[in-house]
From TrEMBL:
This is Thioredoxin. Residues 55-160 form the Thioredoxin-like fold domain. InterPro entries: SoxW, Thioredoxin-like_fold, Thioredoxin-like_sf. It comes from Hansschlegelia zhihuaiae. It holds the Pfam family Thioredoxin_2. Gene3D superfamilies: Glutaredoxin. It comes from the Bacteria. The lineage of its organism: Bacteria, Pseudomonadati, Pseudomonadota, Alphaproteobacteria, Hyphomicrobiales.
Length: 184
């Protein structure tokens, strides 16, 4: 596959500041009107490459779909990720690429198809924001293993990330996994 092209992008200003000062990362409102975390992956928008890089580091890989003016997206980035327990777990266990449901950037999908963000959102049936798609190796290929369409409550939000990080998606649904966790 060759060297990881993302290595040439560096850590990014937010990630390097957090690494050197120990400070928390922050949500950023981009010029496109979308909120993102400054620790999200700086990507060449080749999702297969991004997923391989994350998995190679022992992390999970997810895409987070958002759109300009989405109040739930703003809440995700300014409230949920402001909680150290949520932000710390997700940041430690996952690499996330932000995509815009109405965006026009060209993206190479996991299967190698090149599409604009809006066309990829349609292909992947992303109908609400924020939506997280989680990917892992299954049957020798990278596949979507779980999806969070919309913003769950904070406890369930974190539980979904734990569900994926622990491989809970093998053999049962998120709801079944969550019931088993609550019964403990």
């Amino acid at each position: 596959m060759g060297p990881d092209r993302r290595a040439f992008l560096g850590l990014g200003v937010g990630a390097s500041l957090a690494a050197t000062t120990g400070s928390r990362a922050a949500s950023v409102l981009g010029d496109d009107g979308n909120y993102v975390q400054d620790w999200y992956v700086d990507s060449f928008l080749d999702l297969g490459e991004d997923a391989q890089a994350a998995l190679g580091k022992g992390k999970g890989f997810a895409t987070q779909w958002g759109m300009r003016g989405c109040p739930a997206c703003k809440r995700l980035h300014t409230v949920y990720f402001a909680e150290p327990g949520i932000e710390g777990f997700v940041r430690e266990k996952f690499e996330i690429v932000h995509l815009d449901t109405f965006g026009s950037r060209e993206v190479t999908d996991i299967d190698g198809e090149r599409l604009g963000e809006k066309a990829l959102a349609a292909k992947r049936a992303v109908r609400t924001t924020p939506t997280f798609q989680f990917f892992a190796m299954q049957g020798g290929r990278i596949a979507e293993v779980a999806r969070m369409p919309g913003l769950l409550g904070e406890r369930e939000f974190l539980a979904m990330f734990r569900f994926v990080a622990e491989g809970g998606y093998t053999g049962r649904s998120f709801e079944e996994w969550l019931k088993a966790q609550q019964a403990r």
